[in-house]
Amino acid sequence: xxxxxxxxxxxxxxxxGLARDTRVRWALEEVGxxxxxxxxxxxxxxxxxxxxxxxxxxxxxxxxxDLVLFETGSIVLHLAERHAGLFPSDANARxxxxxxxxxxxxxxxxPILELVNAKILEGDKPWTDERxxxxxxxxxxxxxxLSARLGSSEWLDGVFSAGDLLMVSVLLRLRASGLLxxxxxxxxxxxxxxxxxxxxxxxxxxxxxxxx
Length: 212
Prior knowledge:
The chain is of the alpha+beta class and 212 residues long. It is built from eight helices and four strands. Helix 6 crosses helix 7.
């Protein structure tokens, strides 16, 4: 059955790999599954046809036969469970990889998104300058914890897994802020993720859409 995902017809980031369809593209490339992309406009996100796929009017969505999924974590988990390449064979290691998947989207990403929103959506508010150092410190707190856990390891738990895929994707949002550069091992960790051939293929595919 053909896999179809949705993506922005014009990504807000101009194709820098920050839109969440990149995470799903990367996962599909890692497990070697071909897929089609249906491009949607911002207006189409709120129309009944798309809301039937994702009740929150977001991208990406995932369709495979009768199966429809939304939320990148759920989609990546589905792919990792169904295809080899994103989970280790050992059951305990697999469980740890899932823990890192949840950590990426539940513990690390929220303060990062708070920082992004503070800059983009609230940058013109009178209280932004006072609030920004607090928001940045929340991000630094999470990065300090993650950096200590990663240490000098190449990946979070031995071999590359879906946990690393999501964590690297989340950390990429920090590049413009300069905060990632304060933690050399995390910066190197993200660079290793970006160097993976599967990531490069996913990135190039999204960039090609936005370069048209």
